[in-house]
Amino acid sequence: MVSSMTFVVFSLLIIVGLIFTNVLAVNLYETSSISRTATSVSSHLDENCGKSTVQINQSPTDPLPSGIPTYTVEIVNTCVTDCAISNIHVACGMFSSATLINPNIFMRLSENDCLVNGGNPISSGGVISFKYANTFSYPLSVSSVVCN
After folding, report:
1. How many CB atoms lie within 10 A of CB 126?
2. β-strands 85-91, 141-147 pairing
3. Tens digits of per-residue pLDDT, 23-44?
4. What would the DSSP string read from start to end of 28-78?
5. Minimal CA–CA distance to 40: which of 84, 80, 85?
6. CB 106 within 8 A of CB 56
7. Distance CA 134, CA 98 (A)
8. Environment class of residue 32 by beta-carbon count within 10 Å: exposed (0-12), middle (13-18) or buried (19+)?
9. CA–CA separation, 56 and 58 (whole Å)
10. What is the rounded (10 degree) CA torsion for 101, 143, 118, 85?
11. 44-69: per-residue pLDDT in tens?
12. Is residue 54 a contact partner of residue 76, using CB atoms and an 8 Å limit?
């Protein structure tokens, strides 16, 4: 009888110990999850507005009837909060096109300096797109922006 009672008490102690260990592990996991989330959110908040939130995508499209290659460019404000970005300047080399591009959309101001959207703001998630024709594609990268 004593030995069965000892076994029951010992078993209860093990069960209580396992429950306590499990609760402790869950609390540690929740704390570490909160820490990771806070780090993730704060690092994202640092990038709410800036050059890194403007993405330039460029892809080849069907050539002109004359055979000159054409390219489609999309300039996207990837900011997830309500932030408009204006005065977007793009490093664009000696950009030129065999087809006319609306200068209010994309215009070369000088060597290696092109202005997007006439300097006007692009809202969060906004996209400016245009096509150009040239024998080669130009490397395009954001050089400066103004956050509104």
Report:
1. 15
2. antiparallel
3. 333 333 333 333 333 333 333 3
4. HHHHHHHHHHHHHHHHHHTTSSSGGGEEEEEEEEPPPTTS--EEEEEEEE-
5. 80
6. no
7. 6
8. exposed
9. 7
10. 130
11. 333 578 999 999 999 999 999 999 99
12. yes
Token digits of residue 126: 């906004």
Tell me how far apart the alpha carbons of residues 118 and 9 are, in angstroms, rounded to a whole number: 80
pLDDT at position 75 over 60: yes
Nearest to 54 by CA among 74, 81, 38, 76: 76
Question: Are 54 and 88 within 8 A, CB to CB?
Answer: yes
**Cα 71 to Cα 58, 66, 68, 122, 124, distances in angstroms:** 7, 15, 10, 22, 24
124 neighbors 76 (Cβ within 8 angstroms): no
With contact defined as beta carbons under 8 Å apart, do 90 and 56 qualify? yes
Single-letter amino acid code for the residue at 28? L
